[in-house]
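Amino acid chain
________________
===
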Amino acid sequence: MRAGLFWLNDRQWARIEPHLPRGLTGPDRDDDRRIVSGIIHMLQSGARWRDCPREYGPYTTIYNRFNRWAKRGRWCAIFEALAKPGEDGVVLSLDSTSIKAHRCASGGKGEAQSSNRPLARRPHDKNPCAERSALPAGRPASDSRPGCRYRCGSDVLALAPPMSVLLADKGYDGDKLRGEIIRRGAKPVIPNKSNRVVIHRFNKRAYKGRNVIERCFCRLKDFRRIATRYDKLARNFLAAVHLAALVAYWLN
């Protein structure tokens, strides 16, 4: 077997296999373990799908499985099944990051404003913007691509699990967001902007834990198809983020 290829080990496969779809009509699927391993390898390497190593089988089979399950929401469902926050999910960290989009990520078929195709952009640098919240251990809890020029923390809160504390940098220091956090029964730990009139006290010691979200972004961007977006469809890119998070945190 060629070195440098990714293969799910027995322990990792035992975790993910029970959540794969069963009882589907049609011909029998190819070896799930081999194909899922091939998909993960492609996310790590960032190579073109047609350059998928032959050890995983035909590249069309690898891509079609990834694309079909992304369209049906299978990858997101597997993530939600394995990434349920436990008792430690009471402190969340929130931040956003920019991701370079390759030119092949544009020009997909369909409506220009289709929700499956947007490249969420910041006007000054044209970078897709992903917003994510993380649990204390650095594990991602939710993901959003608001597609606007301002940070939309309230959109992520709608996806976040119950929490008691939310850590965020001063870019999220707004009365509306603070009020939303408090309405959800949590305490905002957010530094004050320099131009804020009403100063809010915050726990500086607790704020040091916000670095988990930075580490989370670093681990996700170890997957080259996450660090640079090549997918035309937003649903496929989101599926890739979910799968990368599973491998980085819940399958290791």
Notes: The beta strands are 91-98, 100-101, 129-134, 140-144, 165-168, 187-189, 228-229. The CA atoms of residues 96 and 131 lie 4 Å apart. The longest helix spans residues 234-250. The longest strand covers residues 91-98.
